[in-house]
């Protein structure tokens, strides 16, 4: 099917920002990507649009990844290997693996978006990053005109980071991920390191949780804290939690008692951007139609009718407030198109 012209992208981004794509094509199979081949136009690979800030109209080709499919591809003594198409809804996929009796991904329940986007920023929540259970992926390389496989080491995963971002491919549209394989070990222990999860399970009087118990607890926590994009448009956390060196964290903690600090294996310390934003006075505050959510200051919300320019204005004001109070730089998590 030829690309559609001048398509409204508002329904395709969870911040509900306005913008039109000069060309738009829904991708349901890897073969379709080969047919598109090299075009002169700029390309953007779109999943669920849940980590996206649309600046306005996009004068290029949007490839909307909706490739379906999920199946067990291999099983050995130690693990199940599950493959899913890039267009599968992430949360539905996780719940499906649990229903099949393959635990592991439960801590990532209710993260919006698609399977194909999960490796791009190495999605993470409640003590787990997807890289832990990632096995490999297949992507169409528009430059080489072929399907390429990437194993876990090749993806160079980090906190909200991967090879795809390091190379700028998430913006240039060079690679379209078509499927991802996960390796779910048969030996499973509940991951309840995150304090909120342990507390929620204790409140439910569950001492030895199953994977579906952990999923249910995390779904409840997320529904309490995070706004539903269908009701209040947002893109989840709007900034990364900043990583600073240990002396900087110690200095900040001296000056600001109560500063949450999470020491990392590499010696650096992760700070809680939501705490910094709240202390800087931005929790529940707005500038025009864009503000920081009243129940979770790290989530930027469109209170109605906002544009990409409105988002940038609030983002800049929040960054300036945090810089002034803490001398810490906040970098945005979503992708700006
Ligand atoms: P999109 O927003 O469509 O795209 C994101 C990036 O991935 C773009 O650069 C795009 O080009 C690229 N991309 C998408 N699909 C493909 C593909 N098939 N091939 C190549 N490139 C592709 N994230 C977390 O990590 N943890 C959370 O807990 C979390 N909570 C959230 C809560 C809410 C309420 C919301 C709205 C968002 C949250 N997010 C979270 C962010 C978001 O859900 C994830 O980043 C998700 O993986 C984005 O998926 P998507 O399909 O919507 O990607
Ligand atoms: N905090 C505040 N005020 C706020 C928000 C948070 O003081 O308004 C404090 C909390 O009290 C807590 C700390 O900040 O001490 C951390 O808060 P929370 O547990 O809510 O997590 P977060 O750091 O704000 C991160 C991820 C989320 C992920 C959750 C759960 C990033 C950028 N964000 O949020 O991911 O779901 O942890 O693991 O790492 C996303 O990436 O879009 C996202 C939602």
Query: Structural class of the secondary elements?
Result: alpha+beta
State the major sheet.
5 strands, antiparallel
Major beta sheet, strand line-up? 6-7-12-10-11
Q: So how many helices?
A: 9
Describe the structure.
With 337 residues, the chain is of the alpha+beta class. It is 25% helix and 27% strand. The protein has nine helices and 20 strands. Strands 6-7-12-10-11 form a five-stranded antiparallel beta sheet. Strands 1-2-5-3 form a four-stranded mixed beta sheet. The protein is globular and about 60 Å long. The chain starts with a strand and ends with a strand. The mean pLDDT is 97. Flavin-adenine dinucleotide binds next to strand 3, strand 8, strand 12 and strand 13. Uridine-diphosphate-2(N-acetylglucosaminyl) butyric acid binds next to strand 13 and helix 8.
Concise account of the structure shown:
The chain is an alpha+beta fold. Helices cover 25% and strands 27% of the residues. The strands form six sheets. The chain has a five-stranded antiparallel β-sheet with strand order 6-7-12-10-11. Strands 1-2-5-3 form a four-stranded mixed β-sheet.
Q: What key attributes describe this structure?
A:
337 residues, alpha+beta, five-stranded antiparallel sheet, four-stranded mixed sheet, 9 helices, globular, binds flavin-adenine dinucleotide, binds uridine-diphosphate-2(N-acetylglucosaminyl) butyric acid
Write the layout of secondary structure elements.
Layout: E1 4-8, E2 20-27, H1 30-36, E3 43-46, E4 52-53, E5 58-65, E6 70-75, E7 79-85, H2 90-99, E8 124-125, E9 128-129, E10 134-141, E11 146-151, H3 163-166, H4 169-172, E12 175-185, H5 195-203, H6 211-225, E13 234-237, E14 243-244, H7 246-255, E15 261-263, E16 269-271, H8 273-279, E17 286-287, E18 290-292, E19 299-302, H9 308-326, E20 335-336
Parallel strand pairs: 2-5, 3-5, 4-20
Antiparallel strand pairs: 1-2, 6-7, 7-12, 8-9, 10-11, 10-12, 13-19, 14-16, 15-16, 17-18, 18-19
Bound molecules: flavin-adenine dinucleotide (FAD) and uridine-diphosphate-2(N-acetylglucosaminyl) butyric acid.
